[in-house]
TrEMBL record:
Pfam families: Sigma70_r2, Sigma70_r4_2. This is Sigma-70 family RNA polymerase sigma factor. Residues 127-180 form the HTH luxR-type domain. The keyword DNA-binding applies. Belongs to the sigma-70 factor family. ECF subfamily. Keywords: DNA-binding, Sigma factor, Transcription, Transcription regulation. SMART domains: HTH_LUXR.
Amino acid sequence: MPDPDDLSALMRAARKGDDEAYRRLLILVAAWLRGVASRSLAAAGRPRADCEDVVQETLLAMHLKRDTWDETQPLQPWLRAIARHKLVDHLRRRGFTDHIDIDEHAETLAAPQAAEEGSALDAQQMLAGLPERQRRIVEGISIQGQTAREVGARMGLSEGAVRVALHRALRSLAEAYRRGRT
């Protein structure tokens, strides 16, 4: 990538109306984006032919959102964030999914019955440590597969209250799990 300070200076000048600075900025950023997009697409197992689409979408977003850049900050992190979001959007539109051949990991996945029972007991013990309302919400959503709306209707709570309680319960469970692992 070209000197980040140079890019920042070019963007500042472009925002003040310097067309030549903006043209130079676009050329430099486009070249850098092609490398970033090409490597990212290859890592995702996608054809490099999609690279130009990601570059153009990123340049367009940069143009449309240029007034949101904080001139006191370097330009490069702002550009990286835009590029990352445009790459993710592109992969989602193209139906990107990671594929892992489960047969290659069959031995790792095969767990003894005792370990499965121990894990279930651990989970039950951790759930039992939650306040009743939080426990019922976690069981309803995470175990029984109900929606927040369904659990809320059953418990007389709003959907938002159920989501907040679920978030707090999951955070408590995560903290309890970390304490048990250390």
